[in-house]
Write a structure and sequence with these properties.
- This protein has helices spanning 8-14, 19-34, 42-52, 56-63, 68-81, 94-110, 117-127, 130-138, 143-161, 169-177, 181-196, 198-201.
- The chain is mostly helical.
- Helix 5 (68-81) crosses helix 8.
Amino acid sequence: MILTVASGTMVGMFEHFTDGARRILVLAQVETRSLHDSSIGPEHLLLGMLREDAGIAAKALLDAGADYYRARAVIEEHKRQQTGRGSGPEPFSKATMRVMERSLQISWAQADGGIDTEHLLVALLEQEDETTEAVLAGLDVTPEEVVQRVDALLAERTLLVNPVLASPLPSALALALGGDRSKQLEVLEGVLWGIDHLDEVV
């Protein structure tokens, strides 16, 4: 199945997505159609993460107690209570666009070289979307639990790749999940400046 994208900017962003992140978007589109919605929303991304199965996002959610079938049931119930709340004709809702843009910022801040499943998950949790929050509450899972699992999984992966390196993501999670926006932009600008002036810094 091919994900339909209307915006040239989004096509450019997709070039930075890992295979796992792209699978999430494709699965989110499948969920959107199955639920008879016209735009991919944050809740569809969440279901896509749970179905993707191989990435850190799925593992963190599952470890924290999330379950695809229960999540799907909560979303369906939430939709029934939100009568009259329709999605627009765009492929992605505005909230989903914010999630993807934020995931790019988080990836840049960590100099990770691409948007992976954990970047999408952290960006999703940061948005505080009503339906996503309802799903997590219905599953008795807190964002903090999920973040802790992301940290632990990334630390494990880092140790497997290079035991000398410590996982850098906790600072990114702190940046993503809280704090003043101006401070976030300052950190991001500082990282970008450092990349541009790497020779001077070294």
